Amino acid sequence: MKIAIFGLPASGKGTQAQFIENQYNIPQLSTGDMLRRLAKEDETDLGDRIRAVPTGHFADDDLILTAIKKELELPLYKHGVLFDGFPRTEQQAKKMIEMDIIPDAVVFLKSDEAVLRERAVNRRIHQASGRIYNLISNPPKVDGLDDITKEPLTHRDDDKPEYLDKRFNDFNQKTMPAYSLLKALCKYGSGPVLVEINGMQERNKVSHDLLIGINSAKAILKIRQNHEFVMIQSPYDGKDLKEQETYTRAAMHQSLMQGEIPFASHLLYSQPNILDYNNEKHRELSREINKQLINRFDKVVIYTTDSLVDKENAIERRMNGKYYFLDHDTNEALNYAVKIKKPVEIRNLDSLEIHKRATDQLSVNLDIGSQPDIDSLIHKIKHNPQLVIVESPYAGTPEEIKRNEYYARSAIKDCLNQGEIPFASHLLYTQTGILDDKQSAQRRLGIEAGLIMGTLCQKSALYKDLGMTIGMEEGIDRAGLAGRSVEIREIPEFKDAYEAGLSQGHTRKLKP
Fold it and tell me: ∠310-311-317 over CA atoms, to 5°?
């Protein structure tokens, strides 16, 4: 994997670059070290050109890029490379693109320049060990001396006020345009993956977010090359629905981060105003949808657990030489997958790492339209299944997101009421514990997985009551490229009914 990392002076870029190198076992490429080595060792025309550069002068961009291209052929870089400090200028970035040396991920540590200036001015370093102090936030016990060796601390020239202006100006005027040029290549479905991290956090938190971002970028690259559609089945029998949903979201997260494109119908359709999983007819509709999806997906992954399933009402099954308790819906999905010879994989829910975050609950509940005849919908889905991508707004302020989620759920219900099988990645992958929509690479992973999911669908349904967004426009473009039709739809009176229901704090029913 090729990674380019950018950040303002004193943003911790060097520290995080070392973290990336250690974590992913990929070497940093220092252009200075590379040129000095080639000047000594290379006996080709390239070495002659490097040796011809006058002492004290910089090699031109063409020479640097030619040397880098040759350097990347070495076995040292077979697992990837980390560009730290390159490209340094917009011209170098242009040459990088021309010579097809394009990174897979572009990392940027977002920082506040004023805070960084203060941090640098007050930084002191113990040269021998690399220990770093800050006169304000982490001062040495004895002024000017290392806590352990009692040796003098150093205030680097680069951290002194007279040098900081030049360092920041060089970055803003030269390097920032190079970053902007690479960032412009970061598009859905192609180009590098943008990994923007809040660099003002505590160092370990920056490293943690960086790890998630780069792992998300790796997953995106994998699904682009060889996407695999996975039907997720996990306990959902009513024993403890909140815990079951939490673990299923963790299962979805694991699947996405492995470069799979997962779908768990009960996580999407059991949300408020869609299907009532306590209603057996609604559950029957869900099971029929599952069968149609299993027909089209590459494999079924069953997440099992002994702690979350209601054993008294569960079905005991022997799989891979072991006995498992399965709820009835999972058992039915397994039987159907075996019947049509679809691959089945067993994974353990209890081994998953769970990230729980509090979520806001909105009291208003919108009952959209009248209930259709479920038997007729099951018949329609069974004999003429139409898979549909739902396009509707998502991002915005916290209040707008709540409204947009309600609208998207109403759109999903509208599709179901028409006998369609709807997908809405923005309402599924953004759930707490699956992907973090506030992290650039995680958001992009969810969107790209959703766009690829669209290749299974016959049409896109664009719900326009709340306006158009960039994401919706990209979805329409992808529909055109895939040869998928687009239908423009509306949900009459949604906005007025939502605002009225929100202000009154009770259920508001919309007209059919």
Answer: 120
Q: C-alpha angle 197/203/205, rounded to 5°? A: 60
Confidence label for 508 from pLDDT (cuts 50, 70 and 90) = very low
Would you say 146 and 140 are in contact if contact means Cβ atoms under 8 Å apart?
A: yes
3-state secondary structure of 354: coil
Place of tokens 């002076």: 9
Average pLDDT of 161-165? 85
Residue 316 contacts residue 330 (beta carbons within 8 Å): no
Q: pLDDT tier at 366 (50, 70, 90 boundaries)?
A: very low
Cα separation of 222 and 218, whole Å?
A: 6
pLDDT at 362 over 90: no
First to last CA, the chain: 52
pLDDT of residue 198: 95
**Vertex 154, ends 149 and 155: CA angle to 5°?**
150
Tokens for 30, please give them.
């220092």
Look at residue 387 in the predicted model and tell me its pLDDT.
96
* CA–CA separation, 351 and 65 (whole Å): 46
Question: Quick check: 281 pLDDT over 60?
Answer: yes
CA atoms within 13 A on the CB side of 508: 18
> Nearest 5 degrees, angle CA 209-CA 450-CA 294?
120
Report CA-CA distances (Å) from 472 to 179, 390, 395, 469: 27, 9, 11, 5
Rounded to an integer, what distance in angstroms lies between the CA atom of residue 364 and that of residue 407? 12
Query: What is the 3 state secondary structure string of 264-289?
Result: CHHHHHCCCCCCCCCCHHHHHHHHHH
Q: What mean pLDDT comes out for the span 64-88?
A: 90
How many beta carbons lie within 10 A of that of residue 100, not counting itself?
Answer: 7
